[in-house]
Each structure stands twice: as structure tokens, then as C-alpha cells.
Specification:
The structure holds two protein chains of two kinds. Chain A is mainly β. Chain A has strands spanning 5-7, 10-13, 19-24, 31-37, 44-50, 53-56, 65-68, 75-79, 88-95, 106-107, 111-115. Classes of the chains: A mainly beta, B mainly beta. The A-B interface holds A 33, 35, 40-45, 48, 55-56, 58, 91, 93, 99-102, 104-105, 107-110 and B 4, 31-32, 43-46, 49, 51, 89, 91, 93, 95, 97-106.
């Protein structure tokens, strides 16, 4: 079974530029998560989808971050404009439990973003 | 809101030593508790989990028991190996407000031969 795919793996941009990350979850997984992991910290949930609906986006900085999951499969996370403090690894994860219940989340390799 | 607190690292042990990584949590209701591990150069992967009080999760020689009375989920292993060197994350999924996942800050473990 293929794992969670993310691209790009690395991205370097200047502040105020925009950037987009892509995630393809494990086939059949209804729940998709985007996390931000700043160096030395644990992952922080940004947004959680069930199919193509948003379950939780309470920690997503909506003035600059947006995410969508069209057709309930793959997803994109966008930052516009980027700030220096957005430098982090962006992790995508998926889970096959309906409602995002207490099941295993499968993580992708992450996208390391550096904002200069 | 819900939170997870882990002991700070790094933790450095010799091979075959006993490992404990402390994790305590604050949550409303009855969350599910997890330990994830991140080996060097790899992505996060589930190590073990427990979904109700007094449950014990175990995998690869690691164990953790869900203690509701002390709101803890400490990770233990009787004899660590060099290959256990990694970053360990404690996490919870609350059962109120949409199953939100909260991770601890992570504890880096170094095991010396």
C-alpha cells in the first residue's frame, strides 16, 4: 500500500511570496490532516478534513493560510504572503476512521519550508 | 484547552539501560493517548496507543499505561538499543469537539553503544 505522498520536499522562498504544498493521502482514507512542525516542537494541527469538509481549522491563520480538499482526495495548503515565522516542516497525515476518531494517523515525509 | 506535556530531552542512555519518558496530559472527557516515533531521516509513525483508562499499549518492547488518576501515559522500555535513538512524541486525541489531535514537544533519545 502506498503511503502518504507530499510535494515538494523542500522549498525556499522570500518573505511576502506565496507557496503551495500538495498532499495525496492513502487511498480510501476519509480524514486528512495538515500539521505545522517548527524546529524543536511537536506538530501543531492546522486543519483537519473529513472527506472534503473541514472538521477543525481553529489553529489555521486564516489571514494568510488556506487549504482545500477537492473531491475528498488530495489536498493543497497555501501560504500567501509568507512570513519568516512560517519556516517549518509541513506534515500531511491521513486516517481511515470516519469522523477522525482515535485511530492511527499515517504521516507523509513532510515539506520543509524556509522563508528568507 | 487540551494539552500534552513531555519531559525535556535529550535523554542519553547506554545500551540495555531502562528507559522512561514521562508524559502527562490535560483534557476534558476521555481522550485517546498515543506515542509516535520519528527515527532519523524518517517520518512520524505510530509506536503504540491506548484508548481508555488502564489500557496498556505495547509495541517493539515499549509499553505505556493510560493512568487517568494521574493523567499520565509514560513510555517505558526495559532494555534500549542503539536503534531506538529517535524523537518520541506523546499525543492525545480528544473525544469532544471533533477529535482534535494535540502533540507534545517531543523527547529526543540518544542510545550509546
Amino acid at each position: 500500500e502506498a503511503g502518504v505522498a507530499q510535494s515538494p520536499r523542500y522549498k525556499i522562498i522570500e518573505k511576502r511570496q506565496s507557496v503551495a504544498f500538495w498532499c495525496n493521502p492513502i487511498s480510501g482514507h476519509a480524514t486528512l490532516y495538515w500539521y505545522q512542525q517548527i524546529l524543536g516542537q511537536g506538530p501543531k494541527l492546522l486543519i483537519q478534513f473529513q472527506n472534503n469538509g473541514v472538521v477543525d481549522d481553529s489553529q489555521l491563520p486564516k489571514d494568510r493560510f488556506s487549504a482545500e480538499r477537492l473531491k475528498g482526495v488530495d489536498s493543497t495548503l497555501k501560504i500567501q504572503p509568507a512570513k519568516l515565522e512560517d519556516s517549518a516542516v509541513y506534515l500531511c497525515a491521513s486516517s481511515d476512521l470516519a469522523g477522525g476518531g482515535p485511530g492511527e494517523q499515517f504521516f507523509g515525509p513532510g515539506t520543509r519550508l524556509t522563508v528568507l | 484547552g487540551d494539552s500534552v506535556t513531555q519531559m525535556e530531552g535529550p535523554v542519553t542512555l547506554s545500551e540495555e539501560a531502562f528507559l522512561t519518558i514521562n508524559c502527562t496530559y490535560t483534557a476534558t472527557g476521555y481522550p485517546s493517548l498515543f506515542w509516535y516515533v520519528q527515527y532519523p531521516g524518517e517520518g512520524l509513525q505510530l509506536l503504540l496507543k491506548a484508548t481508555k483508562a488502564d489500557d496498556k499499549g505495547s509495541n517493539k518492547g515499549f509499553e505505556a499505561t493510560y493512568r487517568k488518576e494521574t493523567t499520565s501515559f509514560h513510555l517505558e522500555k526495559g532494555s534500549v538499543q542503539v536503534s531506538d535513538s529517535a524523537v518520541y512524541f506523546c499525543a492525545l486525541i480528544g473525544n469532544t469537539g471533533g477529535f482534535k489531535t494535540i502533540f507534545g514537544a517531543g523527547t529526543r533519545l540518544f542510545v550509546k553503544a
